[in-house]
Specification:
The protein has two domains: 33 residues; 102 residues, NADH Oxidase, CATH 3.40.109.10. 42% of the residues lie in helices and 21% in strands. A four-stranded antiparallel β-sheet has the order 1-2-4-3, with helices on one face. Helix 2 runs antiparallel to helix 3. It is elongated, with a radius of gyration of 17 Å. This is Nitroreductase.
């Protein structure tokens, strides 16, 4: 029991230090390093896990997730999941990313969060979607 409490305390202090580092980097205008997944709050990790259960064409799972903050994520399109033989325009990949985003929205709502989406279109191969979670009133 004491070991679990010590681990929890250590994670909270790491989390607080990481938040302080991010805030300091933002004040300086520097590019902050993303959070390690292990430092995310438990509900955020669970939301991302549920989102990753989304179906994808040929089970390619073509998404990447960058973690600028505990509840601020950027979903991208990973070249490792592209299916050029199936479709050179990556239509199936785009649908898979949509399924990931939809699962994320459902999971976030289940945990009492709402999503604010920011689509950053470039090309289907380089599109990103930013999402920020906030507690529902």
């Amino acid at each position: 029991m004491a070991a679990a409490a010590a681990t929890g305390t250590a994670l909270l202090s790491d989390y607080a230090r990481d938040r302080a580092t991010l805030a300091d980097a933002r004040r300086r205008g520097a590019e902050a390093q993303p959070l390690p997944v292990r430092l995310l709050p438990a509900d955020a990790r669970h939301i991302l896990h549920l989102a990753a259960l989304a179906p994808s064409g040929h089970n390619a799972q073509p998404w990447t997730v960058r973690l600028p903050g505990p509840y601020h994520w950027v979903i991208g399109n990973a070249p490792r999941g592209w299916l050029p033989v199936v479709g050179p325009t990556q239509h199936e990949t785009t649908l898979s990313l949509g399924a990931f985003a939809q699962n994320l929205g459902y999971a976030a709502a289940h945990f009492g969060y709402r999503c604010r989406w920011e689509v950053r279109p470039a090309t289907p191969q380089a599109a990103e979607v930013g999402v920020r979670l906030s507690r529902r009133p």
